[in-house]
Design a protein that fits this description.
Length: 134
């Protein structure tokens, strides 16, 4: 099975939060884990927030960021999906950066792994399979 990993789920996993065991079990069963290249920027920004708001040490956050990036087997380039992502975002009235994950999942026939409730709802509108945390 192919999984599209969203940053919200990756952070939940790598920071050892509540749903880490659930996410870990899904990642371990995956044959291939993918994400749009946007994932790198989003994950980096979250690490910056952990440092700036919670004063986490930079070296620990960089280590966690490397671990997150190593989870991904394939990054999908934006130049390959941006037009479809814009079209999807207009269709469902949802931000383009989230549509990048939706298009990645749809094109690769992957199940989306995210903690973002709005993204889960958007995926269901497009009949993209998504893991349910509830």
């Amino acid at each position: 099975m192919i999984i599209t990993l969203d940053v919200s789920a990756a952070i939940e996993f790598i920071m050892g939060r509540k749903y880490q065991p659930f996410i870990k079990s899904k990642l371990e069963k995956a044959d291939w884990i993918i994400a749009p290249t946007l994932f790198i920027y989003e994950a980096s920004n979250v690490m910056w927030k952990y440092h700036s708001i919670k004063n986490y040490p930079q070296d620990k956050l960089l280590r966690k960021l490397r671990q997150i990036l190593n989870i991904i087997d394939q990054f999908v380039e934006p130049k390959n999906i941006y037009e479809e992502a814009i079209s999807v975002s207009f269709k469902i009235d949802h931000p383009v950066y989230d549509a990048m994950y939706l298009v990645t999942s749809r094109r690769k026939n992957a199940k989306l792994l995210t903690m973002d409730n709005r993204l889960i709802k958007a995926a269901s509108k497009l009949e993209i399979p998504v893991y349910d945390f509830n």
